């Protein structure tokens, strides 16, 4: 028999115990402009903000990502990615709602076949952050809702096109899907003989690192398909210690991790920002992949960096970084066989 005083049982907190479930964090997102301004302690804007009542692309950002912003700083590079200015509601010649001609490349609802050996699946319109430069901010998601029959049509299409060896999940954000849905997708894709890889492009690891759970990792590594996760980080301050913690099991499991960045005027269009981003990514086990020039999407002209400026910046990166940390400077051009490199 145990006698005397006993110390209380000490419970070692896990990542899940310390933080709300990722679904709860999604439910608690900031979804309107007044809440964003109040949360970030912003007053007296330096320019006119957008009239969100007339804006079909609402404010949306996780509180985790907002917590990475500097309170009270209208020029914070993370804030500027989600803050809607009146300028985005102005018409700009040469900018359109579908500059990549994705409508022409749509093979089936939810399936875009731009390049010979790979297809892009849009399984959801949901996203945890509305980046104001988003190239799909005008995408007709209602025409791409995937019911069971539409999903089967996609699987049949893949069986009929043996030249396709890779499926890319985009969106929206594919990691907004529940684990069961992702599991079912992966199992169906693994049964397509020609496929060798599955790639997920996601902003969630950056804006909500707790989405990178052990069950999700098991799903992505649980088939014969080689899993690739492409993060989307634009600035070194987005790469939190929380993200670093969550990525460690993924690197140990052998998941290939890349990052793609969009070059944004006034946010990350300096060699210092891009160099720091590449170095921090590599420290987290992630390789820089693409440095994208913005697409000519209506409402995004104020982010544009000229090709000459982008190429000059890229030359600075080549001088400052080892080659494997220099992302490829590219633009997507409708009809090209792949991303177009902007040679320096």
From TrEMBL:
Species this chain originates from: Natronospirillum operosum
Modified residues (N6-(pyridoxal phosphate)lysine): 339
MF GO annotations: 4 iron, 4 sulfur cluster binding; isomerase activity; metal ion binding
Catalytic activity, reaction form: L-lysine = D-beta-lysine
Domain Radical SAM core: 113-336
Signal peptide from the UniProt entry: none
Parts of the chain that traverse the membrane: none
Top-rank taxon, per record: Bacteria
PANTHER family for the chain: L-LYSINE 2,3-AMINOMUTASE (PTHR30538:SF1), LYSINE 2,3-AMINOMUTASE-RELATED (PTHR30538)
UniProt entry keywords in alphabetical sequence: 4Fe-4S, Iron, Iron-sulfur, Isomerase, Metal-binding, Pyridoxal phosphate, S-adenosyl-L-methionine
Binding site for [4Fe-4S] cluster: 127, 131, 134
Protein name: L-lysine 2,3-aminomutase
Family: Belongs to the radical SAM superfamily. KamA family.
Keyword Nucleotide-binding part of the UniProt annotation: no
InterPro entries: Aldolase_TIM (IPR013785), EpmB (IPR022462), Lys_aminomutase/Glu_NH3_mut (IPR003739), rSAM (IPR007197), rSAM_sf (IPR058240)
Cofactor(s) it depends on: [4Fe-4S] cluster; pyridoxal 5'-phosphate
Record bears the keyword S-adenosyl-L-methionine: yes
